[in-house]
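Reopening this one. Same input as before:
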Amino acid sequence: MSSIDKISKALKSAISYLDNSILSLRNKDENAFSNSVWHVAAELEYALFLFSITLGNGHNVSIAKSNPEVKSIQMDQVMLKVKGLISEAEESIGKGELSDAYKNVYLARHYVFKVQENLTKKKNETNKKEK
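Same output, byte for byte:
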C-alpha cells in the first residue's frame, strides 16, 4: 500500500470518527464526543506524518507556520468545518495536489486541537467545581 493510499485511508477513518463525534454531540454524550475527537486528531496526525514522508521535510508549504485564530468555539460548526477541510484534502489528493491536501489536513488538525483544548478546559472547570 502506497503512502498516498495510507493517507486516504487515514482521512476516511477521520471522517468516520467525525461523523461519530457529531452524532455524540447531538446526543449530548460528552464522553463519546471526546473519545471520537481524540481519534480524529490521531488520524489527522498520522496523515500529516505520512505527508511529511511523502513530500519530504523540506517541502515548501506556506500554511505550516500559520494557525488561524479560533475566536469562539461552537463545537458543531468547528466539526463541520473540519469535515469540509478533510473532504477538500481528499479531492486534492485525487487531483494529485498533495501540497493543497497537506494544507487542508494541517488546518483540520489545528481546529481539532482547539476543540480538544476546549474540552480539557471544560473538564478542568467541572473538576474544580466538584472539589
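So the earlier flakiness isn't reproducible anymore. For the record, The chain has one domain: 3-130.
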